Amino acid sequence: MSPGARNILSLTACAALALVFAAPMLVRCQSAGKSWTCEPILDRHSETDDARQFTMMWEVSRVSLRDFGELPSWNPYHCGGVVHYLDPQVPFPGPLFFLFFWLPAVTGIKLWNVAHLVAGALGARKLAKDHGGNFPEQLLAAALVVGCGSVAEHLGGGQLWFAPFLLMPWVLWSYERALRDPRWTVLLAALFALAVCEGGVYPVPLMFTALALDALARLRSKEDRRGLAMAGALFAVLFPLLAAVKLLPVLRFLSAIPRLTPLDDAMTVAEVFMAWTTREHPRTFPGHVYVWPEYNAYVGVVPVLLLAVAAIVALVRPGARSLRLHLWLVLGLAWCALGNVPGFSLFGLLHQLPVFRSLRVPSRFLYPATVAAALLIVSLLVALRRSAAACSLRPWVHRSLIGAEVLLALFVSADISITTGPRLQQGLGPQLPSGHASGDYRLVADARYSDLPGFPVRAIGATNMLSSS
Fold this sequence. Notes:
By secondary structure, the protein is mainly α. The chain contains 17 helices and eight strands. It is globular. The N and C termini lie far apart (57 Å).
């Protein structure tokens, strides 16, 4: 097979993997006796309070633009009126919002999620390819990045702010290129600005932390120090300029009305491995202030075993600088995910900084740690494959190794998709009212929170709401 054909096959397979993983958001299939029945659910949101809140946010932006011809600066439909544009979680003015806002809100949100899943898969593929990964290694990286339990739990729970996390493989790719050629800093700054405009309230600071940890590990190299200095200086100028339309007003608002959060949670190392390997868990997580969906980062036992092998090889193999860099990044991000642990807490140190003081749920560092782990696993497989090639083994041995990698990628992809994919649709909420929003705005006492996404079209506001139950 020619290199061009292999490239097309890899692109197609990784994009298809993302679409297969996204299928539970689009179609609901249930067994009916000896057969199965399927129904399209593109217009049905999940039955979670987060899904209702973020669907309402999307609807406010859509209605303001389409029906009133106004920029969505204020949300009059929630709690008697709240800020909208100044809310850092609102996906406006993300470019993809403008691509989908003319559609019904839930449909637009799901297509937004699908677009990010495909972008994440292709980014993981490109990052793995740049590190020498072949087709099965690229597919494995894509499966770990888009299929991780964190993705399913947060997107399936309706949290739109999570979607920019799927840009992280492209962030790492452009960052590594920027160290060699400063012109790539333009793309790096643009990706961070895109995440800001899309409401990436956690992705932006957590991805920045990942780059800071990687940069710290590279300071021993004179060449890397030079690249970091040039790229850092350009980024410090370009990122604020590109993100200013959203970043500056949000920071101004938060400085005037700070949202300070406590250091109220911690994980053990054993619980990190539990988060990566537990298929099913009750919603409650004893000993923690948050529910299990905040911790679920399932990738399966096999990738975790590969991660352990990669850590050992990185530590004992001479000249394995790339593996050590990736291992440092995984450990640093996992350390942040531990939260407010006794002794020295890296998350506690970050929590003293601006922006980080407004963030809670340290376990959300598990997703960037998983992306870094995917890169470490791919680097391990590349190193093992190259070592085998250097031993001048017979051709059938090399073919067997590639075949084993294909089986590994397919097994992990299937396992993750079957385990976490169903979490992408958590219940079936009611269809939203259609038609244009009325200008006859009115307050309704004790409206139900379950009806919140329909408020903008119905022109209803509420000062307090009844439980959705």
